[in-house]
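Contributing new complexes? Match this layout with flavin-adenine dinucleotide.
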Amino acid sequence: MGPGWKRPKNEKGLRGLFQEFLKTIGFSAFADRRPAGFMVPLGNYIPSPAHEGTVLIGDAGGFAGPILGEGIFYAHRTAELAAHAVERHLTCAAPLAETYTTLLRHRLIPELRAERVLRDFVYGCLDARMQVPLAAFMRATNTRVIDAVQGSRSFRGFWRDNDLHSAVW
Ligand SMILES: Cc1cc2nc3c(=O)[nH]c(=O)nc-3n(C[C@H](O)[C@H](O)[C@H](O)COP(=O)(O)OP(=O)(O)OC[C@H]3O[C@@H](n4cnc5c(N)ncnc54)[C@H](O)[C@@H]3O)c2cc1C
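Output block (do not edit by hand):
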């Protein structure tokens, strides 16, 4: 970018650009629809996202990492747990909603809860500009927090567990 470069003005706005995008991909019929959106959940999951023959997975159940809002892993993992619950339901007549919520309670929610505690500490320090205790905590835990965010350690005590995100029963 040379010295005369100016940031192009976004005169159409986000909605105008979205309408243009819809037309480009052949969806002109939808261009006048009012777009709707929602916030990415940051740890405020639904504890029992199932009822009778319906289960909610991913964002629909509020599953995303409380610290960074990463939801791709949770979308896959809840889908995997839901698939196991469906399989149990079809092969052994296990109740679908109960099986799914039990799996979530054992395999996902404890981690989300522990991550939420850590998030409150980290964000609380950032909000209060308390870099010193935060920096001391990060030094003391070495790479453990990063390992936990990357999924190779548990948020509960930062122990290593290779099955943490793959075990089902
Ligand atoms: C800007 C942004 C950046 C992000 N970055 C990251 C990131 O770097 N890493 C990460 O892990 N996560 C990230 N996320 C979060 C992540 O994208 C979501 O958590 C994840 O995609 C959730 O997957 P999902 O399958 O639950 O929902 P979605 O991926 O939203 O899939 C739902 C699908 O259902 C379709 N749909 C909706 N209503 C209907 C209907 N009535 N009929 C038929 N289809 C319908 C939608 O079009 C959509 O394709 C980001 C999110 C946003 C918004």
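Reviewers usually confirm one structural detail per submission. For this one: Residues 11-40 form one domain.
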